[in-house]
Amino acid sequence: MGQVIFVVWRECFEALLVVGIIYSWINRNPDRSNGMRYLFGGIGLGVLISVILALIINGVFKELSDDHQTLFMMAMSAVASILIVQMVYWMNRHAKSMKSTLEQEMAQQVARNSWWGALFIIAIAIAREGSEIVVFLSGQIMQLNSHNYTGFFIAVLIGIIVSALTFYVFILTSRFIQWKKFFTITGVILLFLSISLLLKAVEDGTNMLLEHDVSIPDFLINPAWDTSHVIDDSGLFGSFASSLFAYRSQPMWISVITFGLFWLIMALLFLRKKTK
């Protein structure tokens, strides 16, 4: 539940930033009454695209056999992990110019008397955030049934409400608070979420190979340590730490190696960016 809330909160907050920038620009436009209709139309279209993607993922998953379902979930976890890294990297590079870029694109479309073009800019921006939510939470979406629909949608609703409150605070305090630190901190948490998803894919793949009697060196599948007496990842707090921060009380060595390689690559990627 914590993973769902955080992902929805962060992605919806970014979507609200985009909507807020475009809303402010349209509000200053002489044809704002017409522009507002296309703004809300673009938001609706973006949300619809995200919902359709969620239904497609869920539908495909239900049609697969057990082994293929496992492979599909592994692939979605890996894709989600890569997308999170790409998103954090992109935000670090383009957050400062996002406002001017959006306003320039909107101005170009309106200059061509094309509010429809503006609508698609809005729809793409919203669909990108919504699609990222769907992909990031694909594991939960694919496992939804009549017993856990309620909890999942409550978590989504909480994430949306918290993102709206965060956006309101952002508007009130943007002149006084260094929100760059906010994006840095949440970006680091998203990277932890990324490695959590990657570890799930690696561990599911390892277990699948073992179930099919594929030989794997004992060193890779033996526990590296045991901290279950301190924090058990089957408990409430441990489960939260596991889903959001990749905590394992008894990690296999293959998980430890994956974790280390991931953070080495992230250090090289983001430190390289800073030296440019």
TrEMBL record:
It is found in: Membrane. GO terms for cellular component: high-affinity iron permease complex. GO terms for molecular function: ferrous iron transmembrane transporter activity. It is a multi-pass membrane protein. The keyword Transmembrane helix applies. InterPro entries: FTR1/Fip1/EfeU. The chain crosses the membrane at residues 6-26, 38-59, 71-92, 113-137, 149-170, 182-202, 252-271. Its main location: membrane. Keywords: Membrane, Transmembrane, Transmembrane helix. Belongs to the oxidase-dependent Fe transporter (OFeT) (TC 9.A.10.1) family. This is FTR1 family iron permease. It comes from Snodgrassella alvi.
